[in-house]
């Protein structure tokens, strides 16, 4: 042991140099210092520090963590030192992998904190970590431990156990991706597939997936799936910003399957891959016939298509972006085919159609498609299947023409389709035809059943054969396993016996050899002693030392034999002692490997003799996994003993220096690490087209690597005909210049023991020769009625399907179409061509390898169609007409040579030929007259002829602008022989000066207008125009028209009628002007016509009414035109506003004097005292609790009254809603309660008076039933019924009770008493032997409650033997004076309600009953209902009023005495 010194050698800090360079101590030594923080070791590189400088130190060191796997682990530290230290981290086992997903080192400037973060700590992250803080003066270091608690199964740990990998290497391998972004291709295990299916499945499908794959721990599955989903989302987020609308794989009706999803890629250049069961599927970007897998991208939508589905396409498909799986979906391919496919169906309109198919095996997942759309079971489509799930049926109900199309059935990955043809109703008669019950397409059910039965029997037979085969294989496997087990046991037993025998022989031989060796050693010792005695060299001593086995390596060569002997003896002892661990070792020194170890041990410095064949026999144990240098056979194979002996001898004799041995071990380690040449990119399958070139390419890891190409196992020579083999760096290529059939096959490239394979499939799709194709593309031009021929040779493997199309419509042989096919050529002949046949001609070739198309144009020449409108007028002035038109819709396929133009002047019958005007669709006509209208005819002229006519609309040359209307003539003055008029000129003069006017007149009642001025003499001015041609006393109206250069314009609006007479005097004031009625907004007036005073005041012809608010000084005229009536109603007044009113009479002489009212008028109705206008008003209202109470009342009053509602004399609460309108008021209780019961009073009051009305509103509810009913017999023959009061009795003072009875004889319930206000009643006439039962109801204004029922009451009848015993007759005196059994009760009843009083009296003879109120007899008063039944006296007051209050008394009298009972009735308001 070495003694520790204060100066220790310390490893150089990261980033520092060793040896006197900057940053390191000259001898890489440092001085230890203590830190204030425990656990921190500081190393100072210099004995004395410069001023102001300091070594690094920790103010906060990291804290050890024990954390669960998958959580986030963070180590935090804060360091100080001048200059600022650099912080680094390391771990004991391995290196730290700094990656955003594994580990990150960060520094926060604000808190000056250094952190080491593990985002998702894994089990392999558990280790001891060191944090180093270094600067040029020293270094501080502290250690911290990270413990990770593993959760569940760890795939990483298992791989580490099996492969001995480092955790970092494994995590790197998980993230390993190819340079092109794809992930490593390897077949997926079943467990991986299940998890991928669950990751992309809907939650509703979890249970079925677990059942299918035998997962029983559903809760554990959900927990693990949640964690996997989080990890998957984080991976996806690196490449995809958004993903949705994931559509699982679906099989379509054309044997295609599609996968759809919407992805928003962060990098549009990211590559998208498709994998099937972990193996990449080659994709084409465009949909073509040659490839089965394609990818189509439309915006953010990605559509993957798989064509020509087969059973081999079943599997798990995964979509990857940048090597990250984003979506997985499973395609299942059940073993099912179509035994009978669906057939074409022709159905009648409004009838039904049926499609049927038969499967080869039971299957219930058949999907139906109609015109590419999936169908579901409903009213229109009925989908069904037979019980054996073999016959599947689709019925289309009520077929319409729109239902025609292709319908398909899809079963697994197989499909079949056919047409539905709907024949339209031949005689629809404009209405929808009647529904038909016919079923089109229905196959013979017996035939389908027979086929289905055959398929079922075949299916069951196949399943039975498979089951029998599986049982047979299982039995054979069990037999083979048993035999193998027996053979293994026998071989093991023989090996054990042979081993034991070999051990015994080897031991005996070893003992013999050892004895011989010891004897030889002894002789050698004696000889050496003799030589020393004789002055020999040191070699003997060295040899002796070698014999002891301690320092055998230092001995001379001559002594090697002795050392080796001892080493061999001891090594053999060790070998035999360890024989249980190494069963295959030789009896003579072990294997060659052991011999090598022995040699190594013999050369050891300490002479330990490690190994089996040399040294002291101490067995060396290898560290790490044992890797054999040669191939070792099975345990049952025997080892060549002689070879083992020779190898053991060679090992004992061979000696190598330690340096050479270390070099050999380093070379072996390098060879173990170096994997050799490997492939970066292997060969890919290639489809080659016959006659074209093809190329295979692969990339290896070394540019110096040479390789060999093979085809179908045969090596391809470099100078092979038609093939060129090249190498460009690490790329190796094989190019076939012209592919023929013999080039198809399996190609292999092998380099340095590694190989990659690919298939070249030679295809021969249809193709065209380039020259023939160019000739075919030349358009074909023919004239109408002629024929056209199209011919195109082609090459390709037969059979080739040839189709011709014209404008997208397939052609077939017809009267005008003839198609001829010969070997390698096809010809199309079209005859009697029309212009409409022009268009695109296409030939389409198709065989098993692909499709080829070629296009050309067919042009049929014909006469052009007429030019088209509408006409565009560019200019139409007084001197020129310029217009354009549209070219013909079809020029007949020819160039337009000329337009032929003809012109016609409107009003003439001749057409003038202007002539050809050229090919431009426009014309400028300068030979026109101002104001004339012209019409033109156009024809198109081409080399094929002239078109039909196109005639334009009329065009006017220079539009005339007439003046507008003058103002209406206004009468200036009128006399019996002359009327003077004036008017204003028109605002629109037509662009020229007004030359004059034409004036017309018309008598009132006539329809004829007459000219005032002569036609050739216009009126020059309209300032003042006298009209003298009038008749005295006649009434006239006038109109005027302006004239300019274009002519006379429209006449003006007629003037007012005017009499031809001398002017009149204005009328006088109206008489008796007064107000007849008024409201808040109107005022009715009347007056008498003013008197006529000859020479002073003439007759009034009309009147104007004017009003003026009291606050204004201006008068407002109410009527715009004068009225002739002597009454008028002014409207639109302000309520209660003050107005002044006046009336003015007018006539032809003007307005007369104004007549005003003496006082202002208020806009209000005449004063009216409030009065309720309803004929019948309810004064009592019953409302159920919880319902609304609404009461409306109408009234009239003027002026507007004040309306107030009171409840029981006080204003109503806010709960009550009051709505007032004109002449009406409403009270509303939205949700009435019992507390709302009361008397509501409305008070209507204005300045004239007031009026009130009261209504009682009673809020109640159906009463609760009374309590238990008890029966008791106080008097024989009677039953006293008593009951507990209803809970509502205290709330409702109008609550009373009703008693019903039922006996065993009648069995019907009937009422025995009603309106009982107490809780007891006595029922009479109870007969023995009958069973009675009673019910008691609580009643109020809302109705009755549920009954409370009594127990059954029975008075048993005593049936004794009938004996007649005449007892001694004793006089029985039952007479007694009247006596009250039940006295009267005190009563307090509300006003308007009824009141019921009752009492019970006995007495014999029957007493006479008299009722009194305030000592006044009531027996003869009809307002009281008095009854006496069996001594029960009662009195009913139907409507209690204040007059009924007082003292009531009942007096009972007979000849034996007199009794009376009194009570008091109080009436509540």
From TrEMBL:
One of its GO terms (cellular component) is M band. Residues 550-559, 587-596 have a biased composition (Low complexity). Residues 56-147, 675-761, 1170-1260, 1378-1466 form the Ig-like domain. SUPFAM superfamilies: Fibronectin type III (SSF49265), Immunoglobulin (SSF48726). Transmembrane segments: none annotated. Residues 1-34, 158-190, 522-658 are annotated as: Disordered. Residues 536-549 have a biased composition (Gly residues). Pfam families: fn3 (PF00041), I-set (PF07679), THB (PF18362). Residues 567-586, 600-609, 632-641 have a biased composition (Acidic residues). PROSITE patterns: FN3, IG_LIKE. Residues 866-962, 965-1063, 1066-1167, 1265-1360 form the Fibronectin type-III domain. This is Immunoglobulin-like and fibronectin type III domain-containing protein 1.
